[in-house]
């Protein structure tokens, strides 16, 4: 008799022992639901207090982080451009700024991380790395201004990216480092925003990312691995930036990504794993990008639902896959300008200019609820989940996800949302971001003007 049917006939039979993952999941669910239960039972005024974004406390926490950053502390020594990005981007999302001296010191510090042969390292004198290059470039864009933007040696940076480029289309993170989808995204993102993207950098990138889309529909870090939210955002954003997003199986990607938002209201990073605040951006960001691709998705679904004769199959497959190695012409879709290869330079810019109001593919209010009630430390800073400690990485990505939610219904990427779309008091409203680069929109625009009109 199977375990199932024995339990049906003999209720006293011992239930199967839960797995460790099941126990962890129940524990998180119970903590999250206790919070939601409390929230549901308190008066409206107390509910508003619980939903308030603790701006002052977050600023205090971030300012403390900045003070640590300027003094030498070694534990995160190879990560300092990342710390700069997480902290300065969070401050920018809150609509705040820092004093000129601190900005100046940060520009000087990042300059000392800049390798004479291009790219930024995790600290002065270390080996340049594409991920810390992305963090440094996004920090300098976030700081903005002539000194900051002009400090980036774009020619040398281009040389560094070319040296990291692999014949399979991927990029190495650093000399002899790993090749993965993160490296592709960080390389293509900086090349795109700095206006140094060209055919050589793009060559075969689409093939590489395509080889990482799994049977589930999400994108893995490398071929043969498991689909994961972090890599899915990276892979999807890269495919958009190189004009090849139509080559992905988008309906399957939508299907995988939307089901990563669970009953806790936040997102998990992969199937059967726990909810985590940082996926508010990685998964929420991927879904927000997919929201902008509806015409390509509809086209792919239409093509897939047609009944083909045997001779039609190869032709249809060709049109879904895309035929050449990059930027095939498939007509113009919202914000992606899938026209011809030369157009990839303006994809990032068109993405926000060709914006149209569209319904989000995720539950935006539910995600805001998870971020504000479960991921927010009332004393400042944000975190993975209740019971975890706040940190700058989660602060950055929870706030980035919150901003995406707040503007998810907007007609333009920065048009102020209606009050009912912002959970909690309207003062919770953050600055809008460019969803492909994750920098605050007005800083992106300044950088675009600088790098696209100067050269
Ligand atoms: C731009 C850039 C550098 C992007 C990085 C993207 C990113 C967050 C990748 C995630 C890496 C990963 C496999 C985490 C799994 O951690 P885990 O097993 O602890 O977490 P999980 O249980 O939630 O999967
Ligand atoms: Zn996390």
Word description of this protein:
It is a single chain. By secondary structure, the chain is mainly α. The protein has one domain (about 55-65, about 75-305, about 345-455): Glycosyltransferase. Helices cover about 55% and strands about 0% of the residues. It has helices at about 5-10, 20-40, 45-50, 55-70, 80-95, 100-115, 130-145, 145-150, 155-165, 180-195, 200, 205-210, 230-240, 250-260, 280-290, 295-305, 310-320, 345-355, 365-375, 390-405, 440-455; strands at about 435, 440. The longest helix is centred in the N-terminal third of the chain and has 22 residues, at about 20-40. The radius of gyration is 23 Å and the shape is globular. Farnesyl diphosphate binds near residues 185, 230, 270 and 276. Farnesyl diphosphate binds next to α10 and α13.
Q: CATH class, please?
A: Mainly Alpha
Q: Can you list the strand order of the major beta sheet? A: 1-2
Number of domains: 1
Hetero compounds: farnesyl diphosphate, zinc ion
Q: Structural class, from secondary structure content?
A: mainly alpha
User: How much strand content do the residues show?
Assistant: under 5%
Which whole number gives the mean pLDDT?
A: 90
List the helices and strands and how they pair.
Blueprint: H1 3-9, H2 20-41, H3 44-51, H4 55-70, H5 80-93, H6 100-113, H7 130-143, H8 146-150, H9 154-164, H10 181-193, H11 199-202, H12 205-210, H13 229-241, H14 250-258, H15 279-291, H16 294-305, H17 310-321, H18 347-353, H19 364-375, H20 392-406, E1 433-434, E2 439-440, H21 441-453
Helix pairs in contact: 4-5, 5-7, 5-20, 7-10, 10-13, 13-15, 14-15, 15-20, 19-20
The protein binds farnesyl diphosphate and zinc ion.
Farnesyl diphosphate is lined by residues 131, 182, 185-186, 228, 230-231, 234, 269-270, 273, 276, 282.
